[in-house]
C-alpha cells in the first residue's frame, strides 16, 4: 500500500518552524482526513494539525517537544491504493512502505508530490551508533548521551521512542534511589541536607515565551518609553455597570469594565489620532490609522497573548463585551488563530484583574501607546464641598516619546478620565 509522508506545514505567513507539543495519535491508529493528529506550538499560538489524508499511522518521525522547520517529515501514513495524493499539502507519496529510515528532509515547498531520496542514517564517529539526525538532535535537547541508549530499530538504530524509554528508566531509577535514601538516611546525609543542598532545574522556554521576550526587548530598546499615571473617580461607572449587569445577563453576556474602557479609548483616540498610529522608521513617517483595532492583553498559562477586537468603533457595548470574553477564553485554551492576534492599533493591559495598581506597561510595538488599567479601590474624595467615599481606578499610559509628548499624553488621559467619570457621555460620543 502506498505511504504518505507528511511534511511539517507552514503554520502562517513568515512562520517557518514550530514545535510538536503533543501527538494525538499513535502508530497503528486509523485516522480520517482532517482528524487532528498533533498539537503544534509556534511563536503565536497552539494549534491542532489536521491530517490531509485518511489511513493508518505507520511511524511518528518526531517526538514530543521537538522543533521542526517547514518540510521536515514528521509522520508516515499508510493510505489506500486508490487515494490521490498529488494535491495533499505537505506530503510525499511513496509506492512502497518505508525502508529502515526515511530522513526528515527540508523540502523546497510545503506541497511536493515527489519523494526526496532516502538518506543514510548518521553514524557516530566516537561509537558505532546508528541514528537519524533528528533523533540525535532530540537526544541532545533532552541531555541524553545517545551512546548509552540501546537501539530497537532495524540494525540497532536508535529511535526517539528509545530515547524516551531510556529517560523513563533513568527517572524510575532515580525515584527508587531517592526513596531508598529517604528510608535509610545516614547521619552524614542528614547533616548534608541540613546544610542545604543547592539544586537547579532547567526548563525549556516555550516558543511563545521566546517570542514575547524578543518583542518586549525590541519595543523597550527601540521606542523611548514614557509612562504617565493618574487616578479616576469611577463611582458613576461602578453604578452604571451594576445597573446594566442584569440586562447583560439576559443577553447572555458577562460585562466587565473593559468594554466601557474600550469605548472611552476610542472616543479619546478620535480627539488625539496620533496615539492610534505606528511609526515607519525606514521612511520616518507616522502612519495614522483611521480604524480602531483594540488589542486586549490576555494572561494565559503559556504567556501573554494579545487578541484583537477588530473595528471596535463599529460595535456596541454588548458586542465588545462578548468578543472580549470569547477571545480571552480562546487565548487561555490555546485556540486563538493568527488572524485574531494581528493588526491592533493600540492595546489595553489590565493588571487590576490580579490586584495591581500603577505600573509601566511596555508598548505593543510598533504601536505608539498602551493603556494600563489598575484595580478599583475605595478612597476618600472631596466632592460637592464635602468628603465622600469614591471608587478610584488607577491608569498608566506608556507612549513612544519619539511621537508623543508628555502634554499630549496627559491630554489623552484627561479625555479618558472625563468619559469614565461621567460614563453617560459615552452615549453622546459614540
From TrEMBL:
**Is Transmembrane one of the keywords?**
no
Q: What is its EC number?
A: 2.3.1.-
Instruction: List the keywords (alphabetical).
Output: Acyltransferase, Lipoyl, Transferase
UniProt feature coiled coil, ranges: none
Statement: the UniProt record of this protein carries the keyword GTP-binding: no
Region of interest (Disordered), ranges: 88-123, 177-197
Which CDD domains does this chain map to?
Answer: lipoyl_domain
Q: Which InterPro entries match?
A: 2-oxoacid_DH_actylTfrase, 2-oxoacid_DH_E2_comp, Biotin_lipoyl, CAT-like_dom_sf, E3-bd_dom_sf, PSBD, Single_hybrid_motif
Q: Where is the composition biased (Low complexity)?
A: 108-118
Task: Output compositional bias ranges, type Polar residues.
Answer: 177-192
Please list the residue ranges annotated as the Peripheral subunit-binding (PSBD) domain.
Answer: 130-167
What cofactors are annotated for this protein?
(R)-lipoate
In the UniProt record, the signal sequence range is none
Task: Enumerate the spans annotated as Lipoyl-binding domain.
Answer: 3-78
What is the similarity comment for this entry? Belongs to the 2-oxoacid dehydrogenase family.
Q: What is this protein called?
A: Dihydrolipoamide acetyltransferase component of pyruvate dehydrogenase complex
Q: Which organism is it from?
A: Alicyclobacillus fastidiosus
Amino acid at each position: 500500500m502506498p505511504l504518505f509522508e507528511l511534511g511539517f506545514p507552514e503554520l502562517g505567513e513568515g512562520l517557518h518552524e514550530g514545535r510538536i507539543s503533543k501527538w494525538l495519535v499513535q502508530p497503528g491508529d486509523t485516522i480520517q482526513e482532517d482528524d487532528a493528529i498533533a498539537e503544534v506550538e509556534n511563536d503565536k499560538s497552539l494549534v491542532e494539525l489536521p491530517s490531509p489524508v485518511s489511513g493508518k499511522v505507520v511511524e511518528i518521525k518526531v517526538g514530543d517537544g521537538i522543533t521542526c522547520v517547514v518540510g521536515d517529515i514528521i509522520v508516515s501514513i499508510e493510505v489506500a491504493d486508490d487515494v490521490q495524493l498529488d494535491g495533499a499539502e505537505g506530503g510525499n507519496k511513496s509506492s512502497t512502505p518505508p525502508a529502515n529510515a526515511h530522513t526528515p528532509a527540508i523540502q523546497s515547498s510545503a506541497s511536493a508530490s515527489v519523494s526526496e531520496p532516502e538518506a543514510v542514517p548518521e553514524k557516530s564517529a566516537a561509537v558505532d551508533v546508528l541514528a537519524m539526525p533528528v533523533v540525535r538532535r532530540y537526544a541532545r535537547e533532552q541531555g541524553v548521551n545517545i551512546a548509552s541508549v540501546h537501539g530497537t530499530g532495524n540494525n540497532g538504530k536508535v529511535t526517539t521512542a528509545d530515547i524516551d524509554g531510556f529517560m523513563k528508566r533513568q527517572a524510575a531509577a532515580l525515584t527508587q534511589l531517592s526513596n531508598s535514601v529517604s528510608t535509610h538516611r545516614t547521619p552524614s546525609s542528614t547533616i548534608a541536607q541540613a546544610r542545604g543542598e543547592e539544586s537547579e532545574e532547567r526548563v525549556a522556554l516555550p516558543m511563545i515565551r521566546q517570542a514575547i521576550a524578543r518583542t518586549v526587548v525590541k519595543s523597550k530598546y527601540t521606542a523611548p518609553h514614557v509612562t504617565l499615571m493618574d487616578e479616576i473617580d469611577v463611582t458613576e461607572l461602578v453604578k452604571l455597570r451594576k445597573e446594566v449587569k442584569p440586562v447583560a445577563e439576559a443577553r447572555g453576556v458577562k460585562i466587565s469594565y473593559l468594554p466601557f474602557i474600550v469605548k472611552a479609548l476610542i472616543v479619546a483616540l478620535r480627539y488625539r489620532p496620533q496615539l492610534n498610529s505606528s511609526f515607519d522608521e525606514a521612511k520616518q513617517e507616522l502612519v495614522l490609522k483611521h480604524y480602531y483595532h483594540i488589542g486586549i492583553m490576555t494572561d494565559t498559562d503559556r504567556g501573554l497573548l494579545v487578541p484583537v477586537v477588530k473595528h471596535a468603533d463599529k460595535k456596541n457595548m454588548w458586542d465588545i463585551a462578548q468578543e472580549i470574553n470569547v477571545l480571552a477564553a480562546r487565548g487561555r485554551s490555546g485556540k486563538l488563530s493568527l488572524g485574531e492576534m494581528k493588526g491592533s492599533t493600540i492595546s489595553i493591559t489590565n493588571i487590576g484583574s490580579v490586584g495591581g495598581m500603577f505600573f509601566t506597561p511596555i508598548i505593543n510595538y510598533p504601536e505608539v501607546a498602551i493603556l494600563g488599567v489598575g484595580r478599583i479601590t475605595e478612597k476618600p474624595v472631596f466632592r460637592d464641598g464635602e468628603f465622600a467615599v469614591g471608587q478610584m481606578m488607577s491608569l498608566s499610559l506608556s507612549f513612544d516619546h519619539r511621537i508623543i509628548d508628555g502634554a499630549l499624553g496627559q491630554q489623552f488621559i484627561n479625555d479618558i478620565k472625563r468619559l469614565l467619570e461621567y460614563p453617560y457621555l459615552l452615549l453622546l460620543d459614540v
